Structures are given as C-alpha cells and as structure tokens.
Amino acid sequence: MARVPIEVLATLPSDSGREHYGLLLARIAHADGDRMVRSELLAALVRENPGLSPDEVSRLIDTFFDAISGQLARGGRVELRGFGVFTTKERAATLARNPFTGDRFLAPGRNVAHFKPARAMGLLLNPEMANQTTPDTVDT
Predict the structure, then answer these.
(1) Pairing between strand 104-107 and 94-97?
(2) What is the pLDDT of residue 25?
(3) Whole domain around residue 90: which residue ranges?
(4) Alpha-carbon gap, residue 25 to 125, rounded angstroms
(5) In angstroms, rounded to a whole number, what is the distance separating the alpha carbons of residues 73 and 8?
(6) Overall domain count for the chain
(7) Is residue 87 in some structural domain?
(8) CATH code at 54?
(9) pLDDT digits over 30-86, tens only?
(10) What is this structure's pTM?
(11) Long-range pairs of 73-81 with CB within 8 A, sequence gap ≥ 24
C-alpha cells in the first residue's frame, strides 16, 4: 500500500471514518507496499500505541478478528464505517472436474466471506477518484 497524500484524505467527509482508518492505514503501511503479515501489523500498532504492550495489542488483534469471524459464522454482518462491510454470501453448487481422473462431480454449495470496501477505502486505494462525481441519473 502506497502512502496516501493528505489532500486525498482531506476530501473525505468527516463522518467517513478517515480519522480512524485512513490516517492509521497511511501511517502503518508496509515498507514494500505489497503485503503486511500479522507480526508487522502488531509491530506497527505497538509503535502507534506506546502505552500498550505487545501482548495487549496481540490480544486486541485476536479479539477483533474473533469478533468478526464469530459474527460471520452466525450469518451476521460487520460494518466498520469508513473501512467497509464484512458479510457472508452463499455460493451455489457447481459442476466440477477432478483434474487427475477427469471425472465430473457436483461440488456442494458453501458460504464464503465477502468484503465490500467503503467509499473512504476506495478513495485511499484510488486517489484519482476523489474529485469525480457520480451522476444522479443514468441515461439509457
């Protein structure tokens, strides 16, 4: 993730969560920009919160993800304003093929986790979209 210019964050509405998510994400972005593993997230959060020990931050991370996972397992929805919404979607059964034997079989349907990023997250990922407006109506 590249560092986001503060001008982009300033264009977000104040209720979009930019104070909580956008600035934090910009500060803890991975140096390589391509990935961040749990240990790097932990180290970044410890740096941002010097009053918390690494063990406390680790428990917070575990609790955060356990709460999201538990809510999704119950078929619920988790909305983090300014970040996005986690939901579950049902995938239908599909006809599949065994790559070794070539036999076809019916792969059962299943529930999968789904994430829809909030507008603020979209603007962090695509700063060029900050000044674009969406039309009220679409001509057909």
Answers:
(1) antiparallel
(2) 53
(3) 6-129
(4) 11
(5) 35
(6) 1
(7) yes
(8) 4.10.520.10
(9) 445 678 899 999 999 999 999 999 999 999 999 999 999 999 999 999 999 989 999
(10) 0.63
(11) 75/111, 80/17, 80/21, 80/118, 81/15, 81/16, 81/17, 81/118
